[in-house]
Design a protein that fits this description.
The chain is an alpha+beta fold. It is 16% helix and 44% strand.
Length: 147
């Protein structure tokens, strides 16, 4: 599912990106806090210029999420209802359509996700916190100014 997020985001399929989240998911990146699929999708569709990205991740660590991780488990499967997935991501980005002759890293960040097993037998992201470690502000997405 994490690989699906990267693939859909990097290829501009924002409907598929939004579907990877629960309906009321919490998404925090820096000072930005979003709640729900539509707000998460808008984060990507409101960009002012074409953007080329490739996301990669490593160091995935998965563990049960909190004391209630086994609540709602599928008894036959013994699957927890929620897990915590922590990983480190690298985002190559340019504010231009591909192909781009300039390769640069926009962001290296730790992702702290809570994944929830949903009624349709799919894992979805119910919480995502992106914690920047290194960032190149010149490669940041161009978004409309608030207000």
């Amino acid at each position: 599912m994490l690989a699906d997020w990267a693939w859909h985001l990097d290829h501009g399929n924002y409907d598929a990106v939004a579907e990877l989240f629960t309906e009321n998911a919490l998404f925090i990146t820096g000072a930005v806090e979003l709640r729900g699929r539509s707000a998460i999708k808008s984060r990507y569709t409101e960009r002012l210029v074409a953007r080329s990205t490739r996301h990669t991740y490593s160091g995935l660590r998965v563990s049960p999420a909190g004391d209630d991780a086994r609540l709602g488990q599928d008894a036959a499967e013994g699957r927890p209802a929620r897990v915590r997935a922590r990983s480190t991501w690298v985002n190559f980005a340019a504010n231009a359509p591909a192909p781009v002759d300039d390769v640069g890293v926009y962001l290296v960040a730790d992702f702290d996700d809570v994944l929830t097993w949903c009624a349709d037998a799919r894992w979805r992201i119910s919480e995502r916190r992106i914690i920047p470690v290194f960032r190149d502000p010149a490669r940041a997405p161009r978004l409309p100014r608030p207000g």
